[in-house]
# Entry
Amino acid sequence: MAETAVAQRAVPLISYEDVGSAIDWLCNAFGFHESGERYTDEGRVTHAELELDGATVMLGWPGPDYRSPAHHAETCEHARAWLSVPYIVDGVLIYVDDVDAH
# Structure
């Protein structure tokens, strides 16, 4: 029996303070492209879906009270503590064919 490629089993949903800028950066840095409708509210991008080689990532803006971890750490001692470790607290793993060329 032939082996079948495993489809993406999870779709990351990543929150951003500025979804529009995140779209631009992910498309330019990694080659994603928008694959779904872009939702906006009063000119601000609130939701978008990006695709890269069959994998989907959703981007969202949780609302005006949302702060990214880095901005949250500016005013919160606990957030500064979790971001001071040498580990990745939150992130996304994206494989590229040649990291040096990328």
Notes: The mean pLDDT is 87. DSSP finds three helices and five strands in the chain. Residues 19-30 form the longest helix (12 residues).
